[in-house]
Amino acid sequence: MCGIIGYIGKDKCIPKIIHGLEALEYRGYDSAGISYILNNKVKTIKSEGKIANLKKLVTFDENAYLGIGHTRWATHGKANKTNAHPHTVGKFTIVHNGIIENYSEIKEKLIKEGYKFKSETDTEVACALFDYLHKNEKDILKVLKKATSILRGSYAFGIICSDDPNSLYTIRNTSPLIIATDKTGNFIASDVPAILKFTNKYILLDDLEIAKLEKDNITIYDKNLQKVKKTINTFSQSFESATKNGYEHFMLKEIYEQDEVYNNTINYYFDGTIESLENSFKYLNEFEKFDIVACGSAYHTGLVGKYLLENYANIPVNVEVASEYRYKKCFYDTKTLVILVSQSGETADTLAALRKAKEDGIKTLAIVNVVGSSIAREADYVIYIKAGCEIAVATTKAYLAQVAIFSLITTYSSYKNKQIKNDELKSLLEEIKSLANKIKETINNYKTYFSIADKIYKNKQIFFIGRGIDYAISMEASLKLKEISYINSVAYQAGELKHGTISLIEKNTPVIAIATDKNLIEKTISNIKEVKARGANVILVSNTDFKDKFYDEFIKTINVHPILESIITIIPLQLLAYQVAKNNECNIDKPRNLAKSVTVE
Ligand code: M6R
Fold first, then answer.
1. How high is the pLDDT of residue 133?
2. What is the pairing mode between strands 336-342 and 381-384?
3. CATH 3.90.470.20: does it fit domain 244-444?
4. What is the dotted CATH code of the domain comprising 3-242?
5. Has 244 been annotated as catalytic?
6. How far apart are CA 575 and CA 572, in angstroms?
7. Are strands 363-368 and 381-384 parallel, antiparallel or unpaired?
8. Is 310 exposed, middle or buried (0-12, 13-18, 19+ CB in 10 A)?
9. Is the peptide bond between 572 and the residue preceding it cis, with omega within 30 degrees of 0?
10. pTM over 0.90
11. Is 2 part of the annotated catalytic residue set?
């Protein structure tokens, strides 16, 4: 999704801004632009497509020391140069992340006041609003405060006003924004990687706070324009963690990191004893049921979580997509814990679902990767997964770590609710502690998965089937494949196929069948035989050996306790998706139309 970087200081700003934009590329974008102050005047350069296009247009060593840059992921209006940011209206030039919901009505009023608009964007309207308010109020801070009472929606703005060419202003509501400082000057950015080359110290701006950055000063104000003191955070991961480190793609590197990520995540909450789980998760005992709310892959981890918690801990779980949940009637009560799952911690719908639950007086738990993100900060309880920086748009290591957390809390709740015998618990705890070796072993078997990918990558559609938890895994495997390879792929409950979808199966249609749940394997095999009889090319993923060969290809996964099985099973499917996309020469780390962090609804 859109990225913001701004700089004011002693160094020339253009190289820093371009670097920041490149570091934000992973978020996904379709145009880019930069504005800077040169000889007290604003100069703007924009281009459609990649930052490489923008770089051809800029002069890197201009004597400019204040500037803002933006990567735009189109929401209002096409991805073209006119709609690209920054936008200038009158004395204001701005970049914006988020969506202004009431921009049409503001635009109508401003047109009546004589404003003319060049682009289709809500951002240009916000810019015009700042300019309009500035006509009667010269204090820019007061202009911004007034604007927040008019603008509805989500926003993080980087703002330059030609009346004050020595200051960079910023304000946020819901959309993320950080402020950072190095020995040469000060930055604003939508995300830490943008500034990591220069500094690892940053400040998180809260909703409706306004900041004024000068070359050697940062002042932050609350919504009543009272100065506020902010904590300076340190980003503890290295710049290395945000680079490919020799791998061809971030996605591959992140898949390979999964044994380490698993250990980092698990070890933070668990030392091998049930007492450590009690210390980490005892607050869960206050609740009788869970609502798990998330988007995309994080939603899929919720589906795995539901299956685990219901089956092994006897806790009823409702899983919902956040964009639906935020607007639906919820039947939660004080015994319900609403669990928000999010890698970025900034997904707009998930954040809105969290706020809705809080407004209704319901307790919330965030399972989040990005430390200090909005969801993490606003939830009552937080479980951080320790996935490190995830750059590839297609999540892998964060998904695995989220599932690992559901395995941990299921183990704990299953013990607490007396759903597991002592002997089984003892061996399960040992298995949790040593699972990283099996994760590594599964990744190292990549040649098997790659050779299957080589056989199916030309197909136009690929189906996934499974029952129970295997269906939840199918959902994620199917999303992984389609988002990076652009091959149409759908996941079905294995028993549901014959109610319509089986008519799509013809000779050689790949059907990837996941069958790891021992209680359901027999049933899934019957469904596999149904598609095989209709010519499907069946790729079976299972932890069990079979006497009959009712499949065409077999991916054998390592047998582990059922509470841990899904952690292992997803790995071959991630690698298969990767190789299919690679064979199709797709842009694996930055698939078309997608953004890493979806900060608009
Ligand atoms: O940052 P979040 O986990 O909240 O993001 C949720 C989804 O946007 C994300 O999982 C998306 O589906 C991924 N691209 C899937 O690989």
1. 98
2. unpaired
3. no
4. 3.60.20.10
5. no
6. 5
7. parallel
8. middle
9. no
10. no
11. yes
